Amino acid sequence: MSSEAHEPHGADDHGHGHGHGSRFIQHHYDDAKHQFDSGKLGIWLFLAQEVLFFSALFVAYVLYRNHHPEIYSYAHKWLQVKFGAINTAVLIFSSLTAAWAVRAAQLAQPKRLILCLATTIACALTFLGIKYIEYSHKYHEQILFGRYFDPCVSPGGVELLTRSNECAGTKTTVDFDEKGGTVKSGCFAEADLDRDRDKPGVQAECKVDEVHLEFYTPPTFKTSTNHDCTKVPIANFVGNNGTYTLTGLCESIIVKGDKNTVTIASVKHLQVQGSDNHVAVKAADLVEAGPVPPKEGEKPAPSTPNTITVDKAVSVDKPKIGATDSEVNADEAEHPREVNRVAIPNQCPEENPFEEHKVEPKKPCWRVAYQPQVCKADKVGPKYGIIVEYDDTSERGREIAIAADCKKPDKAPDPGDVLADKEQRLVLGQKLIAPTRELTTEQEHELEAAGPPPEHTNMFFSIYFAMTGLHGIHVLFGVGVFTWLLIRAIKGHFTPDYFGPVDYAALYWHIVDLIWIFLFPLLYLIH
Amino acid sequence: MLLAVSGVFLLGFSSIFTGLNFLTTIHKFRPQGMGWFQLPLNVWAIYATAIMQVLATPVLGITVLLLAVERFAHIGIFDPTLGGDPVLFQHFFWFYSHPAVYIMIIPGMGVVSELVTTFARKPIFGYRFIAYSSVSLALLSFLVWGHHMFVSGQSRLANMVFSALTFTVGIPSAIKVFNWVATLYKGDIRLKTPMLYALSFLLLFTIGGLTGLFLGILAVDVHLHDTYFVVAHFHYVMMGSTLVAFLGALHYWWPKFTGKMFNESIGRVCATGVFFGFNMTFLPQFVMGARGMPRRYWDYDPQYTIFHQLSTIGAFVLGISMFVTVVSLVASLWTGKRAPRNPWGGSSLEWQAPTPPPLYNFEKPPVLHELYNYDDLVEVEEDVWERQTPGTDEPVAKSPAHAETVVATPPTVPPTLQPTDVKKTATAADPADAKAPDDKKPEKP
Amino acid sequence: MASTEHHDDHDENQLGHVASIKVLVGTGGTLLVLTLVTVLATRIDFGANINLGIAMAIAVLKATLVILFFMHLKYDKLFHAVVFVSAILAASLFVGFTLMDTSQYDQTNIWNPDKPPAAPIGPRATQ
Fold first, then answer.
1. Chain C residues interacting with chain B (CB cutoff of 8 angstroms)
2. Each residue of C50-68: pLDDT tens digit?
3. Which of residues B292, B307, B335 is at a domain's end?
4. Is B359 helix (H, G, I), strand (E, B) or coil?
5. Do B58 and A465 touch (CB under 8 A)?
6. What is the tens place of the pLDDT at every residue in A214-224?
């Protein structure tokens, strides 16, 4: 009897093994049934621990969904339901073939067994292939997890920059086009600036299409002229015996010379330097007039005082007619937005406003400038950045964005480099990443209506990748196990009294399928 | 950090598979005639432990996996700046780690059950209660993990719920202690080395378990959390109980698996040394913890000095005792007396195996006797015990089908689908094995 | 011989229950149909919670079919069912207690030192 045990069984396709059992029945078991039952209990215990292994991720899912449902209802739109559904069907079918493989082994149908095992492996590989497609799509559209999810850059290739969205994204630098003198694109993440978004030129978070740029190079008029302040609200008038008529809302007007006749509709700050000028102003905030200050060491020359008339009925504020002070009175009013700003040294050449501008500044210059702390000015040098000027009404009366020096990042990350821990540079009007699918108009509108991502949308994707990733790893293990089974089946190891490995692997495979049955609606079918 | 995490992960899975193995073995490899309530209590304890290993350890696995992914890929699940929750990590960690401490203590309790009954020569008092309490302890241990998180930001409601549940988890342990003490009552107590360890266990586990309850009281824990009180508590249950039970088990089964007897006098002296050293080390820590000495501090206020000094002296006593124990045990491998089959008079099956046991443990089918029945075990000479009831091939209950297939002949006969013929298995008599009726058998008392 | 079709499904020597092709294919087909139903059900808006409830109910139904028929639990020892159910119970304990705890938290505000929330949580409004 003992000699039979050592007979190696070839690849027989015997059905019920009468007379000799499989050589895979181990000697410490009573019989084949004992081995099978023990193994069955063992695999059920293993499946129990698999359930617990996944349970922590389900806990995380439930908690985040319970506390931040808005994240889930927003973010799931970027998962592709059709791929998820195909994967579900593929796995269900592979479960069927796995169960059938067990049946084939039990009934000594070796060819059918091999076919079923091979089909199961093929389905598993299909699942993994579709998963790869989904993951690579996400990578291309920069829909990543955790730290690498940046809603400013964000999902679907949708340009969040052209919309009036606020997004709590990472900081970016702003790209400034030197040639055109325009701001190309950019985003700030300054939470504490007292922004007034209704005013033009205000740089808000992620909002760059309304930046207004102006340089302090006021035009100078020498002859009589009519000037419309609407387009150019700052102007200098130099000369004698001129007649100047200014219409529109002017901001800062300087008149230098003698015996000029100036008619101004409305001005915020008027300086008249000279003598015997006749200035008629309908409304003004501040008017200063006086003779040309004498040069150093000289005595003041006699002059005829200027005649300034301000129509009180129109002006709301009492106009101040100040002393003959040649200095420019900067607006001393408190700048509420000076928090977090760094002053930039004056870049304009030494300027006496009552002298002729002999030298045109070669580059834009400014009198008073502030820079938000997004980029700190290191030195005067090549421009790389943008400054936003708020409320400096004394000089220009409006928000201005001026190019200034910013510290250039060490290396500009490539647009597609999602893992670059650098500030990302974005280009207005240009899709950062070409989306792998074109959005239909309806989808565009849906995305626009959805608005910006809620805070911490990255958590959804973290949980999504963790759950599907862990599940995918289990599918991969399943492929390995089933391949090993396939090899053994081809060698004819499995007989009706020894098919335990097929049964146990099929049970493992069913658990993998079970987990996916829950993952699919929980992740993909969120309403 | 990746190395540490991988190590924990691997260890966790080895623990899971161990539990899986023990559960399957206990279900499928009991001899016929050994029903569930004929199992030695040690086996019940292993069963309870295995339940916890299988159900709790995978959560540790996924937790350390998430920790590694968090650290290297910044998924943000535990990082508040990315939207995660660090308290979530604590929930994950303690869901495993509380059952884990029961995984550590319950096998020790199983050993103590064996030691107490053998060295009192009495059946264990309340067998079913101890068996049920082992399993219920395993199940209840899953409900109390939040008591490690009372001061970490857990909500008030959860705090109260976990505190209340923690009171219930002390009940099964208390049941066991009462049963062990009741076993000792009116027993024929022999103070051999393993018994000294078992008695130490009884006292030290009582202290450790009670102080655990103190810590489970929510209001008290707020004061005692992260103090030396906690340190003292868990040393009492981990070292004073688990390690002492382990030492008792080591001494108890040393003769069986090495075949040598260790030096009993040294063993007793060291057991006493361990007891006193341990108490001197950790009892002062309760006091200073309650007086405010925090844990994990390298320096302390002068008011705690005396306690630290006592603790240090105790630690040296403890250390020296344990060192001498180990040396004595290792030395016995060379110089120890050859151990008989049953030096302690134990009633469980392992004492029927030869010493040391051969492959597959038994060379002839062991005889199932009534559990914990010492009536027919007689000490024929010092430290040699034998059963009076003659051993036959037909045991008290049905024949153990499992044991039959394990024979001294080369185990090449695979079982077939046909039922094996009981009578035909050859039993090669071991010449060293003394037959049951012996000329040295004394009169039955 | 190669695969014999005239085998006896209920041979005493069979280890474990043999599933019939009808049961297997029927279960598989039902699962596929239920998947379709799940996907279609999300198109109709019953309200976020009810949609979730429907999806979960269908998922539980599918899971039950897989467990009972593909995994043979219906024909298997009861203890295997005990093992599996206890794992599910442990997992639900985990979810339930943790949810109970976190549901009691106040809304989490990530602390921004430049813009601390107003009193009473933040610094005093009046100094």
1. 13, 79, 86-87, 90, 93-94, 97-98, 100-105, 108, 110
2. 888 999 999 999 999 999 9
3. B335
4. coil
5. no
6. 334 456 676 77
